Amino acid sequence: MGVESAQPTAAAAAAPSAAEQAQDLIDAARYDGLEDVSALFSAGVSLDSTYSQGRTPLHMASANGHLTVVEYLIQNGANVNAINLEKNTPLHWACLNGHVEIIKALICSGASVSALNSHEKTPMDEAVTMGKMEVMDAIGAAVAQAELNGVTVS
């Protein structure tokens, strides 16, 4: 009598794992793939999925300036104050890269302007370090708008 090897069926082998789907979602957000983000979310992939560096889809979309993806993620419940391994929030990355419209969207959705990363820097500190002075005006305007809209800004 021989021992049968347990091999997955073709359908099981072709189905992506949860980790692969999470990575696909993060990549879609990074590269402005709104349709893929929407499809993966509809398939049950968490919008707060992370990978090895703790980055979420919102971190990636914020860092790369993809406003429509950022808005979609926020509207569907992504955590605007998620932190990665270095304790950076999506707002840190948007400020670091000077993405003014994303900064406004994040703050108006409750992102913390005072969150400290592992280098003890706030999002505004990161912008100043990179010479992104237009970000300071954007933060001030967004905080004022958020407060007018009844959003508590911390």
- CATH architecture, by name, is Alpha Horseshoe
Q: How widely separated are the two ends?
A: 69 Å
Largest sheet: none
Counting H and I runs of at least 4 residues, what is the number of helices? 9
* Pattern of helices and strands: HHHHHHHHH
* Helix proportion: 40-55%
Q: What's the CATH topology label?
A: Serine Threonine Protein Phosphatase 5, Tetratricopeptide repeat
Counting DSSP E segments of at least 2 residues, the number of strands comes to 0
Name the average pLDDT: 89
What portion of residues belong to β-strands?
Answer: under 5%
Give the low-confidence spans. Answer: 1-5
Number of domains: 1
Q: What's the level 1 CATH class?
A: Mainly Alpha
Could you explain how this protein is built, in words?
The chain is an all-alpha fold and 154 residues long. The chain has one domain: Ankyrin repeat-containing domain (Serine Threonine Protein Phosphatase 5, Tetratricopeptide repeat). The chain is built from nine helices and no strands. The chain has helices spanning 10-14, 18-30, 34-42, 57-64, 67-75, 90-97, 100-108, 123-129, 133-148. Helix 2 packs parallel to helix 4 (57-64).
